[in-house]
Amino acid sequence: xxxxxxxxxxxxxKRFGTFTAVDHLTFSVSRGEIFGFLxxxxxxxxxxxRMLTGLSRPTSGxxxxxxxxxxxxxxxxxxxxxxxSQKFSLYEDLTVRENIQFYAGIYxxxxxxxxxxxxxxxxxxxxxxxxxxxxGSLPLGWKQKLAFSTAIIHEPDIVFLDEPTGxxxxxxxxxxxxxxxxxxERGVTVFVTTxxxxxxxxxxxxxxxxxxxxxxxxxxxxxxxxxxxxxxxGVFLKLARESERS
Amino acid sequence: xxxxxxxxxxxxxxxxxxxxxxxxxxxMPIMQILLFGFxxxxxxxxxxxxxxxxxxxxxxHALTERLIASxxxxxxxxxxxEQELENLFQQGDIKLGIIFPKDWFASAGLQIIADATDPNTxxxxxxxxxxxxxxxxxxxxxxxxxxxxxxxxxLRMLYNQELASVFMFVPGVMTIILxxxxxxxxxxxxxxxxxxxxxxxxxxxPLRPVFIILGKVAPYVILSMINTALILLLSxxxxxxxxxxxxxxxxxxSLLFVLTALALGIFISTRTDSQQVAMLFSLMVLMLPTIxxxxxxFPIESMPLxxxxxxxxxxxxxxxxxxxxVMLKGVGMAYIWEETLIMAGMFLIFTLxxxxxxxxxxxx
Lengths: 246, 364
Hints:
The complex is a heterodimer.
Chain A: E1 5-16, E2 19-30, E3 34-39, H1 45-52, E4 60-65, E5 68-69, H2 74-80, E6 81-84, H3 96-105, H4 111-124, H5 140-151, E7 158-162, H6 170-185, E8 189-194, H7 197-200, E9 205-210, E10 213-218, H8 220-227, H9 232-240
Parallel strand pairs in A: 3-8, 3-9, 6-7, 7-8
Antiparallel strand pairs in A: 1-2, 1-4, 4-5, 9-10
Helix pairs in contact in A: 3-4, 5-6, 8-9
Chain B: H1 2-17, H2 19-39, E1 47-53, H3 58-69, E2 73-79, H4 82-91, E3 96-100, H5 104-107, E4 111-114, H6 119-144, H7 166-196, H8 198-204, H9 209-237, H10 247-271, H11 275-292, H12 305-311, H13 315-329, H14 333-363
Parallel strand pairs in B: 1-2, 1-3
Antiparallel strand pairs in B: 3-4
């Protein structure tokens, strides 16, 4: 496998009984790319992501993440990826500092590194004043920012974002994407699932999943041309109409 | 190992921040021990009794005197008819009625009527009365004639001479508290992570799943052991309950019970994703049998056979036997190794089941 591909899958499949959630998925993502994983609810996005992050075992097919095999080298993969779930995955009854410290700590950093990164991140986020406040008391946008920052505090090669902007207003969403761009510029590969089609426009490249299969893949501009639509929503609707599941 | 520390530290933060739960965790054992020790007792004192005396002889008067003079009864009314007696029972004014027939002493016939809406109280009161009557008759016999042979029964209540009911409640309360802290609190703490979605983040991290669980339950082991010490201190200082056996053995056995309960709590959390289900499950499937079937309140010997068999699979039953043996009888490991082995077996089974469930979840 070429080294510039940080994620690569071949015929990756996941079946639950007779139901095929992810159907022979083949794609690759390059280093530093923002890769959008789009699809309706139930299209198989989350299942595909769970296989890549080691939360779920593939039924068949191959895959590698950060150069490691997803079947045999899950432990090495885990050290090199970050993950943010749609629920923000922060502890609301802990303070900002405690949350950062905890997430830095579980990646096996030394005591000194944990302290340093915690301080650095609080400064970077300009959260000095709220460092001792409970996360539950922060506004949504701040929580989201904090959740993303803790997901990449161990400087992973790839960060997986599972519908990170669910239930967030458009302005906050926009601010969040600036964080994603900043991370991508530092060389972090971003793998993001979403069902907001306006967000799809922000990605370098996207794939459209329907019924567990990738039906279209490419830069947003190319897809719009290919399907003869003004925006991604049009592309999505055109593809979604073919769906047998919904 | 460093990451294990971070998990423990985080769980301690959670626990310390939740003041209300903390207050319940430490307030409850204190309250329960004091409540069971002072307020709830199996002895009955000063029950109201009505007398229907048709004999009106010296014996009936003397016996009535003697009944009233005991601390168990209070004289409520002298009545004339059975109808009156029935009315008093219905109004709930009396717990016991005694009828002396006309020539009761000669024919040695005496009727005792008890309000059996509460069977335990009724039985106890009837026993008291019979004892007093028997006592009286014996005295009369020695006055009038020398009996051919008299049997003196000498009673000794082993291990608990005053028959203090707190001696029975302390092991029970300890069991319930440890079960609650260990099984319920951990199953809630674990399902909370799932509900919040943070469990996924932990599983994606390089943390080994076994560390996640170990780190999360470790603080509850410490809490449980503090509670054990607290309950023991209270029962020794306030109720003068003896600890005749080895204190180390007692704590060791408590630790084993705590670990068994923890394994149960972990098992529950592998079966459910929501805190509420975990809590209900802990209450219904763990707490109720622990209270009802462990022999804490109702003696296992008097249960119907199916329930007796079920009681065998309740860890609390074996733990209560162990605590009583160690505290009151002062026995060593040689006498309780079977119970210990059963608990250890249960711990092993629940741990294996949890690991299996956890792996099944991960592979789906």
